Amino acid sequence: MSTWIPESASNLAASVDNITLFVTIVSVFFFVLISAVLVGFSIKYRRKSEDQETAYITHNSVIETIWTIIPTILLMVIFAWGWIAFKELRNPPAEAIEVNVIAKQWLWEFEYFTGKKSLNELFVQQNKPVRLIMRSDDVIHSFFVPQFRVKQDILPGSYQQLWFTPTKVGTFDLLCAEYCGSGHSQMLAKVNVLSPEAFTRWEKGDELEDGASVAAISLSPAERGKELHSQRGCLACHSIDGKEVIGPTFKNLYGKTEKLADGSSVLVDENYIRESIYEPQAKMVEGYPPTMPSFKGILSEDEVTALVEYIKTLK
Ligand code: CUA
Hints:
Layout: H1 13-44, H2 61-90, E1 97-104, E2 107-112, E3 117-119, E4 121-125, E5 130-136, E6 141-145, E7 150-154, E8 160-164, E9 170-176, E10 188-194, H3 196-204, H4 221-231, E11 257-259, E12 265-267, H5 270-278, H6 301-313
Parallel strand pairs: 1-5, 4-10
Antiparallel strand pairs: 1-2, 2-3, 5-8, 6-7, 6-9, 9-10, 11-12
Helix pairs in contact: 1-2, 4-6
This protein binds dinuclear copper ion.
Residues 106, 141, 176, 178-180, 184, 187 line the site of dinuclear copper ion (CUA).
Protein backbone atom coordinates (compact mmCIF):
# COMPACT_ATOMS: atom_id res chain seq x y z
CA MET A 1 0.00 0.00 0.00
CA SER A 2 2.92 2.26 0.69
CA THR A 3 3.59 2.69 -3.02
CA TRP A 4 0.48 4.77 -3.71
CA ILE A 5 -0.11 6.56 -0.42
CA PRO A 6 2.36 8.39 1.87
CA GLU A 7 4.39 6.36 4.33
CA SER A 8 2.70 5.66 7.69
CA ALA A 9 4.61 7.30 10.52
CA SER A 10 2.22 7.66 13.45
CA ASN A 11 0.15 5.46 15.74
CA LEU A 12 -3.05 6.76 14.11
CA ALA A 13 -2.05 5.99 10.52
CA ALA A 14 -3.02 2.29 10.50
CA SER A 15 -6.63 2.77 11.57
CA VAL A 16 -7.16 5.65 9.11
CA ASP A 17 -5.59 3.59 6.30
CA ASN A 18 -7.59 0.44 7.10
CA ILE A 19 -10.93 2.26 7.01
CA THR A 20 -9.97 4.07 3.80
CA LEU A 21 -8.95 0.77 2.21
CA PHE A 22 -12.19 -0.92 3.32
CA VAL A 23 -14.36 1.90 1.93
CA THR A 24 -12.36 1.86 -1.32
CA ILE A 25 -12.68 -1.92 -1.75
CA VAL A 26 -16.44 -1.86 -1.04
CA SER A 27 -16.90 1.05 -3.50
CA VAL A 28 -14.87 -0.61 -6.26
CA PHE A 29 -16.66 -3.95 -5.73
CA PHE A 30 -20.12 -2.39 -6.07
CA PHE A 31 -19.06 -0.14 -8.95
CA VAL A 32 -17.87 -3.16 -10.93
CA LEU A 33 -20.89 -5.30 -9.94
CA ILE A 34 -23.48 -2.63 -10.83
CA SER A 35 -21.72 -1.70 -14.07
CA ALA A 36 -21.53 -5.34 -15.13
CA VAL A 37 -25.20 -5.95 -14.34
CA LEU A 38 -26.15 -2.75 -16.18
CA VAL A 39 -24.33 -3.82 -19.34
CA GLY A 40 -25.48 -7.46 -19.07
CA PHE A 41 -29.16 -6.53 -18.62
CA SER A 42 -28.98 -3.96 -21.45
CA ILE A 43 -27.98 -6.76 -23.76
CA LYS A 44 -30.24 -9.47 -22.35
CA TYR A 45 -33.41 -7.37 -22.15
CA ARG A 46 -32.90 -5.21 -25.23
CA ARG A 47 -35.83 -4.73 -27.61
CA LYS A 48 -35.75 -7.66 -30.00
CA SER A 49 -38.39 -6.60 -32.53
CA GLU A 50 -40.16 -3.37 -33.56
CA ASP A 51 -43.53 -4.43 -32.07
CA GLN A 52 -42.30 -5.99 -28.79
CA GLU A 53 -44.23 -4.78 -25.76
CA THR A 54 -42.54 -3.89 -22.45
CA ALA A 55 -43.34 -6.32 -19.64
CA TYR A 56 -45.50 -4.93 -16.82
CA ILE A 57 -43.50 -5.22 -13.56
CA THR A 58 -44.56 -3.49 -10.30
CA HIS A 59 -42.11 -4.64 -7.65
CA ASN A 60 -40.11 -7.54 -6.19
CA SER A 61 -40.13 -7.74 -2.41
CA VAL A 62 -37.23 -10.19 -2.15
CA ILE A 63 -34.81 -8.12 -4.24
CA GLU A 64 -35.87 -4.85 -2.59
CA THR A 65 -35.34 -6.30 0.89
CA ILE A 66 -31.87 -7.55 -0.06
CA TRP A 67 -30.74 -4.24 -1.56
CA THR A 68 -31.93 -2.42 1.54
CA ILE A 69 -30.43 -4.73 4.15
CA ILE A 70 -26.97 -5.27 2.64
CA PRO A 71 -26.13 -1.54 2.21
CA THR A 72 -27.56 -0.83 5.70
CA ILE A 73 -25.23 -3.41 7.25
CA LEU A 74 -22.24 -2.08 5.27
CA LEU A 75 -22.95 1.53 6.29
CA MET A 76 -23.31 0.55 9.95
CA VAL A 77 -19.95 -1.25 9.80
CA ILE A 78 -18.32 1.86 8.28
CA PHE A 79 -20.00 4.09 10.87
CA ALA A 80 -19.00 1.98 13.90
CA TRP A 81 -15.46 1.48 12.66
CA GLY A 82 -15.10 5.18 11.86
CA TRP A 83 -16.52 6.15 15.24
CA ILE A 84 -13.99 4.00 17.09
CA ALA A 85 -11.09 5.50 15.08
CA PHE A 86 -12.47 9.04 15.44
CA LYS A 87 -12.67 8.67 19.22
CA GLU A 88 -9.01 7.67 19.28
CA LEU A 89 -8.07 10.66 17.11
CA ARG A 90 -9.99 13.06 19.37
CA ASN A 91 -8.77 11.88 22.78
CA PRO A 92 -5.10 12.44 23.57
CA PRO A 93 -3.62 10.27 26.32
CA ALA A 94 -3.04 12.05 29.63
CA GLU A 95 0.72 11.53 29.50
CA ALA A 96 1.08 13.37 26.16
CA ILE A 97 3.73 16.07 25.97
CA GLU A 98 2.15 19.44 25.20
CA VAL A 99 3.41 21.88 22.59
CA ASN A 100 1.86 25.25 21.83
CA VAL A 101 1.46 25.91 18.11
CA ILE A 102 0.88 29.35 16.67
CA ALA A 103 -0.12 29.59 13.02
CA LYS A 104 0.09 32.93 11.27
CA GLN A 105 0.44 34.34 7.79
CA TRP A 106 2.61 32.53 6.75
CA LEU A 107 4.61 30.53 9.21
CA TRP A 108 4.43 28.07 12.06
CA GLU A 109 5.72 28.82 15.55
CA PHE A 110 6.25 26.12 18.17
CA GLU A 111 6.69 26.69 21.87
CA TYR A 112 7.66 23.83 24.17
CA PHE A 113 6.90 23.65 27.89
CA THR A 114 10.59 24.16 28.65
CA GLY A 115 10.48 27.61 27.03
CA LYS A 116 12.27 26.50 23.91
CA LYS A 117 10.88 27.87 20.68
CA SER A 118 11.32 26.87 17.08
CA LEU A 119 10.15 28.30 13.79
CA ASN A 120 8.82 26.15 10.95
CA GLU A 121 10.35 23.08 12.58
CA LEU A 122 8.54 20.96 15.14
CA PHE A 123 10.69 18.68 17.27
CA VAL A 124 9.12 15.57 18.77
CA GLN A 125 10.34 12.35 20.26
CA GLN A 126 9.81 8.92 18.71
CA ASN A 127 7.08 6.85 20.43
CA LYS A 128 6.13 9.70 22.80
CA PRO A 129 2.59 11.02 22.38
CA VAL A 130 2.38 14.75 21.64
CA ARG A 131 -0.63 16.98 22.19
CA LEU A 132 -0.64 20.20 20.19
CA ILE A 133 -2.54 23.19 21.53
CA MET A 134 -2.97 25.33 18.47
CA ARG A 135 -4.15 28.85 17.81
CA SER A 136 -4.13 31.22 14.87
CA ASP A 137 -3.14 34.86 15.05
CA ASP A 138 -5.04 35.88 11.92
CA VAL A 139 -7.08 33.68 9.57
CA ILE A 140 -8.01 29.99 9.34
CA HIS A 141 -5.02 27.71 8.78
CA SER A 142 -4.90 23.92 8.84
CA PHE A 143 -2.25 21.70 10.40
CA PHE A 144 -1.65 18.71 8.12
CA VAL A 145 1.03 16.02 8.26
CA PRO A 146 0.17 13.46 5.55
CA GLN A 147 2.50 10.77 6.91
CA PHE A 148 0.81 10.97 10.33
CA ARG A 149 -2.73 11.03 8.83
CA VAL A 150 -3.69 13.98 11.01
CA LYS A 151 -5.29 17.25 9.95
CA GLN A 152 -6.93 19.98 12.00
CA ASP A 153 -8.21 23.42 11.07
CA ILE A 154 -6.93 26.21 13.31
CA LEU A 155 -9.34 29.08 13.85
CA PRO A 156 -8.55 32.46 15.33
CA GLY A 157 -10.28 33.11 18.64
CA SER A 158 -9.96 29.70 20.30
CA TYR A 159 -7.60 26.77 20.78
CA GLN A 160 -7.78 23.59 18.74
CA GLN A 161 -6.05 20.41 19.73
CA LEU A 162 -4.51 17.53 17.85
CA TRP A 163 -2.43 14.60 18.99
CA PHE A 164 -0.30 11.79 17.60
CA THR A 165 2.52 9.46 18.55
CA PRO A 166 5.28 9.57 15.94
CA THR A 167 6.53 6.03 15.33
CA LYS A 168 9.42 6.60 12.92
CA VAL A 169 12.58 8.68 13.25
CA GLY A 170 12.88 11.11 10.36
CA THR A 171 11.73 14.38 8.87
CA PHE A 172 8.16 14.77 7.66
CA ASP A 173 6.33 17.51 5.80
CA LEU A 174 3.95 19.77 7.64
CA LEU A 175 1.58 21.62 5.33
CA CYS A 176 -1.04 24.28 5.74
CA ALA A 177 -4.17 22.72 4.23
CA GLU A 178 -6.48 25.73 4.25
CA TYR A 179 -6.15 28.60 1.78
CA CYS A 180 -4.95 31.50 3.93
CA GLY A 181 -3.75 34.19 1.52
CA SER A 182 -1.02 34.76 -1.02
CA GLY A 183 1.67 32.96 0.99
CA HIS A 184 -0.45 29.84 1.63
CA SER A 185 1.54 27.55 -0.65
CA GLN A 186 4.75 28.61 1.10
CA MET A 187 3.41 27.87 4.58
CA LEU A 188 5.53 24.75 4.87
CA ALA A 189 7.34 23.32 7.84
CA LYS A 190 9.05 20.14 8.96
CA VAL A 191 8.31 17.72 11.76
CA ASN A 192 11.58 16.28 13.09
CA VAL A 193 11.03 13.02 14.89
CA LEU A 194 14.12 12.40 17.03
CA SER A 195 15.29 9.28 18.83
CA PRO A 196 15.09 9.59 22.64
CA GLU A 197 18.87 10.29 22.83
CA ALA A 198 18.79 12.93 20.09
CA PHE A 199 15.70 14.49 21.67
CA THR A 200 17.43 14.83 25.05
CA ARG A 201 20.41 16.47 23.35
CA TRP A 202 18.10 18.83 21.49
CA GLU A 203 16.25 19.71 24.72
CA LYS A 204 19.54 20.59 26.37
CA GLY A 205 20.19 22.98 23.51
CA ASP A 206 22.98 21.11 21.74
CA GLU A 207 23.23 21.52 18.01
CA LEU A 208 22.04 18.47 16.10
CA GLU A 209 24.33 16.89 13.51
CA ASP A 210 22.40 18.41 10.65
CA GLY A 211 22.79 21.84 12.24
CA ALA A 212 19.08 22.38 12.81
CA SER A 213 18.56 25.91 14.04
CA VAL A 214 17.05 26.08 17.48
CA ALA A 215 16.04 29.28 19.23
CA ALA A 216 17.60 29.96 22.62
CA ILE A 217 15.66 29.06 25.74
CA SER A 218 13.78 31.96 27.24
CA LEU A 219 11.38 31.82 30.17
CA SER A 220 9.02 28.88 29.84
CA PRO A 221 5.36 29.73 29.11
CA ALA A 222 4.41 28.75 32.67
CA GLU A 223 7.11 31.04 34.11
CA ARG A 224 5.92 33.93 31.96
CA GLY A 225 2.38 33.20 33.12
CA LYS A 226 3.51 33.35 36.73
CA GLU A 227 5.00 36.82 36.19
CA LEU A 228 1.86 38.03 34.45
CA HIS A 229 -0.30 36.65 37.24
CA SER A 230 1.29 38.98 39.75
CA GLN A 231 1.95 41.94 37.40
CA ARG A 232 -1.55 42.11 35.89
CA GLY A 233 -3.40 41.92 39.20
CA CYS A 234 -4.91 38.45 38.82
CA LEU A 235 -3.71 37.65 42.35
CA ALA A 236 -6.08 40.23 43.85
CA CYS A 237 -9.04 37.96 43.12
CA HIS A 238 -7.60 34.53 42.26
CA SER A 239 -5.42 32.80 44.82
CA ILE A 240 -2.97 30.08 43.87
CA ASP A 241 -3.11 28.14 47.15
CA GLY A 242 -6.77 27.17 47.31
CA LYS A 243 -7.87 30.16 49.41
CA GLU A 244 -11.17 31.75 48.35
CA VAL A 245 -10.71 35.45 47.64
CA ILE A 246 -13.18 37.10 45.23
CA GLY A 247 -13.00 34.70 42.31
CA PRO A 248 -12.30 30.97 42.14
CA THR A 249 -8.81 29.87 43.16
CA PHE A 250 -6.42 28.79 40.40
CA LYS A 251 -5.27 25.79 42.42
CA ASN A 252 -6.41 22.49 40.84
CA LEU A 253 -8.55 24.53 38.45
CA TYR A 254 -7.39 23.01 35.17
CA GLY A 255 -9.26 19.84 34.29
CA LYS A 256 -11.97 20.44 36.88
CA THR A 257 -15.68 20.54 36.04
CA GLU A 258 -17.23 23.79 37.29
CA LYS A 259 -20.91 24.30 38.01
CA LEU A 260 -22.17 27.48 36.32
CA ALA A 261 -24.65 30.07 37.54
CA ASP A 262 -27.20 28.96 34.93
CA GLY A 263 -27.15 25.37 36.24
CA SER A 264 -25.06 23.89 33.45
CA SER A 265 -21.47 22.80 33.92
CA VAL A 266 -18.23 23.26 32.02
CA LEU A 267 -14.90 21.46 31.84
CA VAL A 268 -12.04 23.86 32.60
CA ASP A 269 -9.76 23.40 29.59
CA GLU A 270 -7.58 25.80 27.58
CA ASN A 271 -10.56 27.27 25.74
CA TYR A 272 -12.61 27.89 28.88
CA ILE A 273 -9.75 29.71 30.61
CA ARG A 274 -9.10 31.82 27.50
CA GLU A 275 -12.78 32.72 27.19
CA SER A 276 -12.99 33.61 30.88
CA ILE A 277 -10.09 36.05 30.52
CA TYR A 278 -11.47 37.77 27.42
CA GLU A 279 -15.21 37.43 28.22
CA PRO A 280 -15.45 36.85 31.97
CA GLN A 281 -19.24 36.93 32.08
CA ALA A 282 -19.78 34.42 29.27
CA LYS A 283 -19.79 31.39 31.58
CA MET A 284 -19.97 32.45 35.23
CA VAL A 285 -19.11 29.93 37.92
CA GLU A 286 -21.98 29.58 40.43
CA GLY A 287 -21.63 31.64 43.58
CA TYR A 288 -19.26 34.37 42.38
CA PRO A 289 -20.08 38.03 41.62
CA PRO A 290 -19.80 39.13 37.96
CA THR A 291 -17.13 41.74 38.71
CA MET A 292 -14.19 40.70 36.57
CA PRO A 293 -13.35 43.10 33.73
CA SER A 294 -12.57 41.84 30.24
CA PHE A 295 -8.86 41.62 29.44
CA LYS A 296 -9.45 41.99 25.71
CA GLY A 297 -6.87 44.43 24.35
CA ILE A 298 -4.95 44.24 27.64
CA LEU A 299 -3.58 40.71 27.49
CA SER A 300 -2.32 39.44 24.14
CA GLU A 301 -3.01 35.90 22.90
CA ASP A 302 0.58 35.05 23.81
CA GLU A 303 0.07 36.26 27.37
CA VAL A 304 -3.19 34.33 27.69
CA THR A 305 -1.45 31.14 26.50
CA ALA A 306 1.26 31.75 29.13
CA LEU A 307 -1.36 32.21 31.87
CA VAL A 308 -3.12 29.01 30.80
CA GLU A 309 0.20 27.14 31.05
CA TYR A 310 0.81 28.65 34.50
CA ILE A 311 -2.65 27.66 35.75
CA LYS A 312 -2.01 24.09 34.57
CA THR A 313 1.03 23.89 36.88
CA LEU A 314 -0.98 24.84 40.00
CA LYS A 315 -1.80 21.40 41.34
CU1 CUA B 1 -1.95 28.89 6.39
CU2 CUA B 1 -2.77 28.12 4.31
